[in-house]
Design brief:
The protein is mainly alpha-helical and 448 residues long. It has two domains: 169 residues, Cytochrome Bc1 Complex, Chain D, domain 2 (Orthogonal Bundle), CATH 1.10.760; 188 residues, no CATH class. Helix content is 34%, strand content 6%. It is built from 14 helices and eight strands. The protein has a two-stranded antiparallel sheet with strand order 1-2. Helix 12 packs across helix 14. It is globular. The termini are far apart.
Length: 448
């Protein structure tokens, strides 16, 4: 055995070295114009593949709920949008065991992990309204030449989202209906924030190099690029549902699609990052541009222009502003986060009863902010067999963070990768995962 190792190990190493050198040579020989042409030629094929998957999984129709809107008036989409296997109903599925669902391949496709719009390519992708308004204000073009954002606008958060401050709740939406950028932040906030907080906001709207948006010739923007800002994904300190692939898992098919979470209520949260390994918003702010910005590849970060933030004069300033971002007003809740009987109707109170009772939602989502600041492994993989879907390996998710539910109607789609399009989808998902056996009436009232 040892002699075989001595004979074959050097040759294996040599083969691997030649393969790596060959790959580097090929990459070096493809100039930017060739790269653009190749990826643009491939773009329609991958877009068609992904849209076919979305239509197979979901009902994407624009079907707004009656008299239910987000904070600034955008209609909330209603109804379960995940398609069921032929001949199946939600109640019949909920009556089955995880083993039966798995063996009979009945787990709804929309409940499997959602791939990135082009999972093999990955990287940051922005919804069109953010691209258009950023370019109008700043001249910076966040359009990728190789792929587009995938979900319809009516299924996304309102844009631009309102901004509520813990320090000035009397002002309501301090964004004045505008997208906050480097061009207007000072005008909007000069009389509201102190100089330290305002400097933190300036840094949050300043673009810095990122894996797909930079000045190198393997970027995904047509023009050499300044980069992206924190608030390009977390628009107005909330979310526009911009997506990315988490940099903390390999190989690539196991990387999660990320649905950008809101920054509202950051001051009461204790876990940050895609694997929640960061314990403060300062930690997250400091390392985001060295990790997620460059897919967790230090060499790329160095080559493309990482922005190393200084803890005392930059990170703390940014974190201080983020800690001011508040949840939307909730006039029907009392100071303990429960419904005020005098301000709520019978249907809402029944929903609260299910939330704290049969639905077991409050086991993780505890009031007043409706999070326990913990991680939970839902073990969803017990319902389906591992399968490759458009470059994404649908397998175990592992532990995921309990996100706050305050202001949740402003933040579609749901779950860490955005696979659940509506609150009704979310309820049906957890009805199965937690084996609750809720009926249709329970689900409707809990969604309200």
């Amino acid at each position: 055995m040892n002699s075989r190792i001595r004979i074959y190990w050097p040759s294996a190493m040599l083969a691997a070295t030649l393969l790596i050198c060959s790959a580097v040579t090929i990459a070096a020989e493809e100039d930017f114009a060739t790269l653009v042409k190749r990826l643009q030629n491939e773009k329609p094929e991958f877009a068609k593949r992904h849209q076919a998957l979305l239509l197979e999984r979901y009902d994407l129709a624009d079907r707004p709920a009656q008299e239910v809107t987000m904070s600034n008036g955008k209609p909330v989409q209603e109804g379960v949008r995940t398609r069921l296997p032929s001949g199946m109903t939600w109640e019949r599925l909920a009556a089955m065991t995880p083993e039966d669902i798995k063996s009979k391949n009945l787990w709804p496709a929309g409940f499997l992990p959602l791939p990135h719009p082009h999972h093999e390519a990955g990287g940051m992708v922005f919804p069109q309204p953010l691209i258009d308004e950023t370019k109008r204000q700043t001249g910076l073009d966040l359009m990728r030449f190789d792929l587009d954002f995938d979900l319809p606008q009516h299924l996304l958060p309102e844009f631009p989202a309102p901004i509520y401050l813990t320090t000035r709740p009397d002002l309501g939406d301090v964004s004045q209906g505008k997208l906050v950028t480097l061009r207007n932040f000072n005008e909007l906030f000069k009389d509201i924030l102190n100089p330290k907080q305002r400097e933190g906001l300036r840094l949050l709207v300043t673009p810095f190099p990122q894996q797909q948006f930079n000045a190198t010739e393997d970027r995904r923007s047509l023009l050499a690029h300044q980069g992206v800002a924190c608030f390009d994904c977390h628009a107005n300190g909330h979310t526009n549902a911009a997506t990315h692939t988490a940099g903390d898992a390999r190989p690539n098919e196991y990387r999660h699609r990320l649905d950008t979470p809101t920054l509202r209520g950051v001051n009461i949260q204790r876990l940050f990052g895609s694997q929640r390994a960061l314990k403060s918003v300062e930690d997250f702010t400091e390392f985001e541009q060295r990790a997620a910005y460059f897919d967790g590849i230090p060499a790329d970060a160095s080559r493309k222009g990482t922005n190393i933030l200084e803890r005392g004069s930059q990170v703390h300033f940014m974190a201080e502003f983020q800690a001011l971002l508040d949840f939307p007003p909730a006039p029907k809740l009392n100071v303990l986060g429960k419904l005020d009987p005098a301000k709520s109707n019978e249907k809402e109170r029944r929903g609260q009863e299910i939330f704290f009772g049969k639905g077991q939602c409050a086991t993780c989502h505890t009031p007043p902010y409706y999070t326990d600041n913990l991680m939970h492994n839902l073990k969803v993989e017990r319902f389906f067999k591992e399968v490759m879907i458009n470059g994404r390996k649908a397998s175990a998710d592992g532990p995921i963070k309990t996100f706050p539910l305050r202001g949740i109607k402003d933040s579609p789609p749901y779950l860490h990768d955005g696979r659940l399009l509506t609150l009704e989808d979310t309820i049906e998902f957890f009805n199965l995962v937690l084996e609750l056996k809720l009926n249709e009436q329970h689900a409707i009232q809990d969604a309200d």
